Amino acid sequence: MAREAGDLTRCEAALRTLLLTARRLEASDAAPIATTEVLFELSSLAAQRGQEEQAEELAESALEALAGGEAHMSRLQAKLRANEEWSLLLRLLGARLGYVTSPYRRGQILSERAAVLTQLERHGGAFCATLEAIAADPGSPLLHECMRERAAELDRLDDYVKHIEGLLGKATKGTHALVRCEL
Known about the structure:
The chain is an all-alpha fold. The protein has 10 helices and no strands.
């Protein structure tokens, strides 16, 4: 409420108090808010106040804290999306790609990255991110549907087909049948 009212000093004080609470509760899986969420909020607030160096430091601290887990990531991503904090969201997604190993989760993260790049009208980057998502999780019908639409919009269906042919060529008989069928 303090932020909406324009009282940024009071808002910062409240966020710093919340940060202390979040750090104390972080060991609990039932924590209502994560340290990373509060650090990103503080970074956003510092940027709003014109304190770019502090905003950068807080964003870096938030990215370093990510290794703590994925429990609050969907909520944090939604908040960054709602606030149109596209550069922070891209940094968050990039940091997550550094430690997430599950093909399914990597596909989701890369798909989200493609959506943000599309929002920023960086269509070539979105196309490449979607290709990476499919390479990570080739059995996802949702990724293929999104890719077909994106490729058609950009008149790059041939590039998409070549990518799929390459993935299919790498798929062995031991590959799960669903993946081979989807390709």
